[in-house]
Amino acid sequence: MCHVIVTCRSMLWTLLSIVVAFAELIAFMSADWLIGKAKPSGSEEVDDRAGGRQEPYRPTLGIYGRCTRISHMQLSRRDTLCGPYAENFSEIASGFWQATAIFLAMGIMILCTVAFVSVFTMCVQSIMKKSIFNVCGLLQGIAGLFLILGLILYPAGWGCQKAISYCGPYASAYKLGDCSLGWAFYTAIGGTVLTFICAVFSAQAEIATSSDKVQEEIEEGKNLICLL
């Protein structure tokens, strides 16, 4: 018989697992890993028609995508174009970024799998006599290692020609040049830290769902068990 067990610690672990998976996925897909050096927004003629000089804009560059501004001839209309600069994996600007993409993708796949499984831990707490929380915690730890490897390799690719075109001639491995780090990079770091927190917290979730209070309520015949 399926017993639905909801505790404060197990629910918090489930929510954190989902948040971490989405955060890493959004960061990976974003083009805001590097913020390039400031570029003029358009010609002086276009700016005069608009009634004043426009502020320079800063294009952004991701692992496989980028955002840049395209100026049109009519008035001051400008469109920000975002999308992948690489049509396939081999066109990613740096071999280090290719490795980063592989490690991050592997870590994110594991995190998404754990996030999906975590929803069902309210009803299923073990598989083949093994705690599902402990298994998921182990997988999150492995995912965290993949994410760390990807984040360590990413700055090594700052010396590629694509990064230099955005960050200036002084950009090189582990040196940003005229660029600055975007929110996606910091989100990926924060998600990695939370991944290890989730891996540790999974043990607490397992303890909470197998406590004496839970066992007592199961023996009383309750199918829905909610504990703080």
Give a structural overview.
- This is LHPL2 protein.
- The structure is a single chain.
- Helix content is 51%, strand content 14%.
- Strand 4 (65-71) and strand 5 (78-84) form a beta hairpin.
- The protein has 228 residues and is of the alpha+beta class.
- Helix 1 (8-29) packs antiparallel against helix 6 (183-209), helix 3 (95-119) runs antiparallel to helix 4 and helix 4 (132-153) packs antiparallel against helix 6.
- The protein has helices spanning 8-29, 44-49, 95-119, 132-153, 161-167, 183-209, 212-219; strands at residues 4-7, 34-35, 60-61, 65-71, 78-84, 126-127, 130-131, 180-181, 224-227.
- It has one domain (4-35, 93-226): Up-down Bundle (Butyryl-CoA Dehydrogenase, subunit A, domain 3).
- Which class in CATH terms? Mainly Alpha
* Residue runs with pLDDT of under 50 for 5 or more positions: 43-52, 73-77
Query: Order of strands across the widest beta sheet?
Result: 5-4-3-2-8
Q: From the coordinates shown, what is the CATH architecture?
A: Up-down Bundle
Strand proportion, as a percent range, falls in 5-15%
**Largest beta-sheet details:** 5 strands, antiparallel
Gyration radius, to the nearest Å? 24 Å
Q: How many beta-strand segments?
A: 9
Reported by name, the CATH topology is Butyryl-CoA Dehydrogenase, subunit A, domain 3
Report the average pLDDT across residues: 83
Amount of helix? 40-55%
